[in-house]
Specification:
9 helices; mainly alpha; globular; 171 residues
Length: 171
């Protein structure tokens, strides 16, 4: 499924296809990367992301937050609902430390993405990043680490990339 996501045609994907993919995401590499990339590039990205973040299933909720991160990285600010995205930063501030494991990781990524790709929300994302501090996520015995949101956003600023959008969500 991971490789399928790299070659999938987001314009051919239906809402039902994406829902089936997220429900079948049995590994975080699929739920946090493959599905969100395709969803964000599709015409259903925003509505699915907003639905998925409300799910009790960890991988689906995580996919929702990761889809939001992908959306802010590729969509022009003038087509994004900055007010809703700002409110979601407040939600992360309130809920991140009590959220499920992978959801914590994706919420932290959302703070980083919002602070890196949306200039109007940069200062707020840094403030939220300072509030939440270090986010603990069980990375399953890997050497992977959870980035500190404020440090990551500062690296983006230092590179002169604040607000620079990507062409596609997929890597």
């Amino acid at each position: 499924m991971y490789l399928a996501g790299l070659i999938a045609d987001e314009n051919a994907m239906t809402r039902q296809d994406l829902q089936k993919w997220v429900e079948g995401a049995y590994w975080y590499m699929i739920s946090d990367y493959t599905v969100p990339w395709i969803a964000a590039e599709s015409k259903f990205g925003t509505e699915l992301a907003m639905e998925w973040i409300e799910f009790d299933q960890e991988f689906i909720a995580s996919a929702g937050w990761a889809t939001l991160s992908s959306l802010v990285s590729i969509k022009p600010d003038d087509v994004l609902n900055i007010e809703i995205l700002s409110g979601l930063l407040d939600r992360v501030d309130r809920e991140i430390h009590s959220a499920q494991n992978r959801v914590r990781y994706s919420m932290n990524g959302y703070v980083i993405a919002t602070g890196s790709y949306i200039k109007a929300l940069n200062a707020k994302a840094i403030r939220i990043g300072n509030n939440i501090g270090k986010v603990n996520v069980n990375m399953g015995g890997t050497a992977c680490k959870v980035p500190l949101a404020t440090q990551y956003i500062q690296k983006v600023i230092d590179r002169g990339n604040l607000g620079k959008k990507r062409k596609i969500a997929r890597c």
